[in-house]
Amino acid sequence: MAYLPQGLRDPRVLVGNETHDDAGVYQLSEELALVQTVDFFTPVADDPELFGRIAAANALSDIWAMGATPITALNLLAVPAGKLEPEAVGAMLRGGAAVMAEAGVAILGGHSIDDPEPKMGYAVTGVVHPQAIWRNSTARPGDRLFLTKPIGTGVVIKAMKDGIAEAAVAEAALAAMQTLNRQAYEILREAGGPTACTDVTGFGLLGHTWEMAQGAGVTFILDARAVPLLPGSEALAREDRFPAGSRRNLEYVRPHLRVGWDDPPLLQLLADAVTAGGLLFTVSAEAAAGIMARFRGYGHPLYLIGQVEAGPAQVVVR
After folding, report:
1. pLDDT tens-digit readout, 86-129
2. Distance in angstroms (rounded) separating the CA atoms of residues 279 and 224
3. Which of 74, 104, 253, 308 is the most exposed place for a label (fewest CB within 10 A)?
4. Structure confidence at residue 6 (pLDDT)
5. CA distance 31 to 4
6. Nearest to residue 244, comparing CAs of 219, 266, 268?
7. Which parts of 16-130 are beta strand (E)?
8. CA-based diameter of the chain, in Å?
9. Angle between helix 285-297 and 182-190 (nearest 10)
10. In this structure, are residues 213 and 256 in contact, taking their beta carbons and an 8 Å threshold?
11. pLDDT in tens, 174-191
12. Model pTM greater than 0.90?
């Protein structure tokens, strides 16, 4: 990221872009810091209201991944003037607004532009105590690695766009993308927080795991067969239905991988570009059983998919 301008060096910036964290953090006082993120993308569903809901869920996730509470949002909207029906635009906005209301977030306004391809998202602001920030770069040897949602949205979304996705497969992916990470964040916070946390989005599970390994300078051991997959996603992977972004993800992360088996479609699926994915976090080995019990108690899915070891920054896939 050396090509990115550094901007003003301000000691109140507690988290910038140095470690690929999910949001920036700016300290306002000894007890309060702002957490800010922005995300938008092209439609992942034909239904405009569903698209709006998923866009909102995806943007909110970065705030929860930092251990913060989202409070306000600004809408980002791009639509082709005169080509997209006003009713469709309204449905996109209603879907997003409904999810923001569910999360207790006030939409303060936004900005729209004329663009040949529709796009929508949000800039979201949250708050957190400066000493309670969750980072993606603070995992420790001995930690256990957990994931809260299945992966596979990339291949399923492409199959939906190609018109070949079975109804049940599409419905499962759409349901997962609309599911907020709010409860997972609240369970983790009640348990004292993770040792490190991020959410799985565009860089895929392997990409985000590598960022965690790189930031902490440790080796992540990923149990490929323990990773939860959306219904139908493995079959689509074996038909090589991946979007271009997923292929670029694997090319990017491959130099940092050690793979102990030969299954190219599954490896590519682990790098599949994700939309509105789950929280990916570590906790100490001693805390792992308690975390799993807490999630079970709330009826929330949780998957143990690996562990952290001392060693060079890399991801070992077993």
Report:
1. 999 999 999 999 999 999 999 999 999 999 999 999 999 999 99
2. 17
3. 104
4. 63
5. 30
6. 268
7. 24-27, 33-41, 69-79, 106-114, 119-128
8. 59
9. 130
10. yes
11. 999 999 999 999 999 999
12. yes
Q: Which residue has the tokens 């975390």?
A: 291
Give the 3-state secondary structure of residue 20.
coil
Give the single-character DSSP code of 81: T
**Predicted local distance difference test score (pLDDT) of residue 222:** 98
Residue 115's CB is within 10 A of a number of other CB atoms, namely 13
CA 250-272-21 angle, to 5 degrees, is 80
The token duo for 309 is: 């070891």
pLDDT at res. 84: 87
Provide the pLDDT for residue 261: 87
Distance, in Å, from the CA atom of 49 to the CA atom of 64, rounded to the nearest integer, reads: 23
- From residue 217, alpha-carbon distances to 6, 19, 27, 181 in Å are 23, 11, 26, 27
> Which DSSP category does 268 fall into?
H
Return the DSSP state at 229.
Answer: B
Report whether 124 contacts 105 (CB < 8 A).
yes
Please say whether the beta carbons of 212 and 139 come within 8 A: yes
Domains of the chain: 13-128 (3.30.1330.10), 144-317 (3.90.650.10)
Report the distance separating Cα 56 and Cα 181, nearest Å.
Answer: 12
Rounded to whole angstroms, how far apart are CA atoms 92 and 118?
10
120, 42 contact by CB (below 8 A): no
Tokens of 79: 């639509």
CA-closest candidate to residue 208, choices 14, 19, 10 = 19
Looking up tokens 């789950």, which residue turns up? 278
Average pLDDT of the residues in 71-92: 94
